[in-house]
Amino acid sequence: MKITALVENTSCSPVIGYEHGLSLYIETEKHKMLFDMGQSGIFAENAEKLGIDLSKADIAVLSHGHYDHGGGLTRFMEINDTAPIYLSRYAFEPHYNGTEKYIGLDTAVKGSERLRFTDEEYSLGDGMTLYACNERKRRFDFGAANLNTVRNGSFVPEDFRHEQYLLIEEKGRRVLFSACSHKGILNIVEWFRPDYLVGGFHFMKLDCSERLEAYAEQLDRYDTEYYTCHCTGEEQFAFMRKFTKRLHYLSAGQTIEI
Q1: Is the pTM above the cut of 0.70?
Q2: Burial of 105 per CB tally in 10 Å (0-12, 13-18, 19+)
Q3: Phi, psi (rounded to 5 degrees) for 166
Q4: Which of 42, 72, 183, 223 fits a disulfide with 37 by CB distance 3.0 to 4.6 angstroms?
Q5: Can you give the pLDDT of all 258 residues of the chain as single tens digits?
């Protein structure tokens, strides 16, 4: 399996653009897949520079309904007019940072026939499955981090029911993609126990303290290799690397093979 970061908060090269967001291009034995689209069209510009033809992708997945993962959705639909796009049925709910800053998706594309709305579990075939995990117990409470949604006309803290995770099982390996891990990275690793986990941990606002040290040590207890990025935070990543060598960083323009 080959995984290329098309966009991320950092870049491995001066010619590869970056932004606060995430987009991954995944190549399995049978499929070419786009996982998230960043917040703009930079993911598509980088794909062209890297020699990746997004029109050939046969599947697209949107991990959750935030602009920094789905802002490039329209751009992808312009490039690729065939691939179905799988996203949670809750993805178009209004999402806010606090109560003033809208961080949700552009609802203008909500009626597109390309969209395939998912619930708790959805099989994509060939060892690929989407999971929402809304019914699973969260042993570790990471809170809502001041992120809100609107229900019945009022702001309420996010429960992130619109977030889903992609598990790919291939050649005896289990690779999990968790773009922002809003439901708690420690919960997610405990639920799946994957061989590899690719995605952000949403630690970027945490101090490099004993709390973050404890999280790193907990992650190290699992037999999982982590390729993290985006909302983990560069400073937080460097701090956690002191306590687990299972942790690696994935920048825009980089490719890993599993």
Answers
A1: yes
A2: buried
A3: -105, 120
A4: 72
A5: 999 999 999 999 999 999 999 999 999 999 999 999 999 999 999 999 999 999 999 999 999 999 999 999 999 999 999 999 999 999 999 999 999 999 999 999 999 999 999 999 999 999 999 999 999 999 999 999 999 999 999 999 999 999 999 999 999 999 999 999 999 999 999 999 999 999 999 999 999 999 999 999 999 999 999 999 999 999 999 999 999 999 999 999 999 999
